[in-house]
Amino acid sequence: MKKYILDLTVNSVEALSDKHVLIKLTDDKPLPEMLPGQFVEVRVDNSPSTFLRRPISINNVDYDHNELWLLVAAVGDGTRQLQKLQKGDRLNCVLPLGNSFTMPTDSTQKVLLVGGGVGVAPLLYFGKRIKAMGGEPTFLLGARSAKDVLERELFEQVGRVLITTEDGSEGEKGFVTNHSVLAQEHFDRISTCGPKPMMMAVARYAFKNDIECEVSLENKMACGVGACLCCVEKTVEGNKCVCKEGPVMNIKKLTWQI
Amino acid sequence: MADLSVKIGGLKLKNPVMTASGTFGYGLEFADFVPLEEIGGIIVKGTTLNPREGNDYPRMAETPQGMLNCVGLQNKGVDYFCRNIYPQIKDIDTNMIVNVSGSSPDDYAECAARINELENIPAIELNISCPNVKQGGMAFGVTTTGAARVVRAVRERYNKPIIVKLSPNVTDVTEIAKAVEAEGADSVSLINTLMGMAIDIERRRPMLSINTGGLSGPAVKPVAVRMVWQVAKAVKIPVVGLGGICTAEDAIEFLMAGATAIEIGTANFLDPAVTIKVRDGINNWLDNHGCSSVSEIIGALED
């Protein structure tokens, strides 16, 4: 897929929690095609301590409104500066980068999309694509507490939504892998994005139950295009760049001790 | 439009802008962003005789105005390069230069000899300055005898231009430059990364898997300009300058310090189209200052 450097215009910035904002970007020209699971490297201005671009996963591409959505969690100064963007500001983006989630083979496949924290971001766009092909994805979203559940209404428009919170303030109490649905139902494939311990737990469940499973990794990266080899993940085929051969990887390829 | 062409030994460059090894892949990774044939030279990823997996993750740490890396020369080896990558890059109409590394002088020489057979690789850059491998790499680049041994071994088996990439992690870089010049190097490029370290204070652990790494980016630029200036005065062969170049003004600093050409490295991560912007910026600067050729500013410091 052709990659672009675009100065996108901020359409809106909406706070979703005390830590998360949703930035909607647009352009004069139609946005290029982007796949679910791909990401954008954004340049952060006005942050002297932020030297490199920040990789942000694609939350949604709304082609009807020519909008790219980025869900940004405040992690360090770079992401805090991104949260201060205002309508009309420009954001320099390199996109679309990386591979993508694997689409289900047909609309009858039961797909479980497991997200934790800001890791729910790419699952919305993925779920929309699955719905568009006639599928009905199940989202299993994990958060610390009710106020940290992100984009709940949007997920509900796309598929069935199940929630776990660590404090039990919404949905079932515990981690995503504690949710009762995992014992009660069978899924044909799982895609997951979130903190590594969560993804490892999901991978362990999938492996034990012989379910196809892919994870979206967030190794620290520099170039974003497979040139610098900084973000490598060990795989059964040697080191692979998360930025180019990922971020989505099948758990069968990883060397995780699950 | 000024004349931007320069010569490094027998190597003719359409402009003085090259890409630094390890920051631009094989060029192909950036083909969507820049017309590759308009870059003066593309120095591809460090290549060794045998495949190398490189160091463990994490390999990178962001630092003020720069970054540390300890990639450790991950590459699939020279035979893979010749078979699988060379066919993809041989028709890119610019100087496709291979950066060669090794763990012994014989390694370097054998790797260079295989690249010597590739018609469309007009030169090599010898990396005697990688700080991230235990054997070889910088071990050769920090003594005059080690540097000379590698260049001598390669010179016997490689008959096209050799650019030797020097380490800044030395007491006197001019001594190393003179030693490789005496062995028949056609050019020297400097600086490779400065050895550095960063610590995650919450975890009380180094940020990098092998503790230390090479620092690059604007943070190192003044050190690089100083070393280029010293070396350009000490040797007769052309000098290629690199270290933190992000803009045309940065590049012109190096040219005035005595560099005949420059390499852009880490800045490719910040702006994948930076190479062409720097080339255009040099041209504009020359036009605005009434210079008809880039050669007018090379080493052109006022006394």
TrEMBL record, chain A:
Its cofactor is FAD; [2Fe-2S] cluster. Binds 1 FAD per subunit. [2Fe-2S] cluster binds at C223, C228, C231, C243. PROSITE patterns: FAD_FR. It comes from the Bacteria. InterPro entries: Cyt_c3_hydrogenase_gsu (IPR012165), Dihydroorotate_DH_ele_sf (IPR037117), Dihydroorotate_DH_Fe-S-bd (IPR019480), FAD-bd_FR_type (IPR017927), FNR_nucleotide-bd (IPR039261), OxRdtase_FAD/NAD-bd (IPR001433), PyrK_electron_transfer (IPR050353), Riboflavin_synthase-like_b-brl (IPR017938). Residues 3-103 form the FAD-binding FR-type domain. FAD binds at R54, P55, I56, S57, G78, T79. One of its GO terms (molecular function) is oxidoreductase activity. SUPFAM superfamilies: Ferredoxin reductase-like, C-terminal NADP-linked domain, Riboflavin synthase domain-like. GO terms for biological process: pyrimidine nucleotide biosynthetic process. Keywords: 2Fe-2S, Electron transport, FAD, Flavoprotein, Iron, Iron-sulfur, Metal-binding, Transport. Belongs to the PyrK family. This is Putative dihydroorotate oxidase, electron transfer subunit. It comes from Leyella stercorea DSM 18206. The lineage of its organism: Bacteria, Pseudomonadati, Bacteroidota, Bacteroidia, Bacteroidales.
TrEMBL record, chain B:
It catalyses: (S)-dihydroorotate + A = orotate + AH2. It is an enzyme of class 1 (oxidoreductase). SUPFAM superfamilies: FMN-linked oxidoreductases. It is found in: Cytoplasm. InterPro entries: Aldolase_TIM, DHO_dehydrogenase, DHOD_1B, Dihydroorotate_DH_1, Dihydroorotate_DH_1_2, Dihydroorotate_DH_cat, Dihydroorotate_DH_CS, Dihydroorotate_DH_I. PROSITE patterns: DHODEHASE_1, DHODEHASE_2. It holds the Pfam family DHO_dh. Pathway: Pyrimidine metabolism; UMP biosynthesis via de novo pathway. Its cofactor is FMN. FMN binds at S21, K45, G46, N99, N127, K165, I191, G217, G243, G244, G265, T266. Its EC number is 1.3.-.-. Residues 4-285 form the Dihydroorotate dehydrogenase catalytic domain. GO terms for molecular function: dihydroorotate dehydrogenase activity. It comes from the Bacteria. Belongs to the dihydroorotate dehydrogenase family. Type 1 subfamily. Catalyzes the conversion of dihydroorotate to orotate. This is Dihydroorotate dehydrogenase. The gene is pyrD.
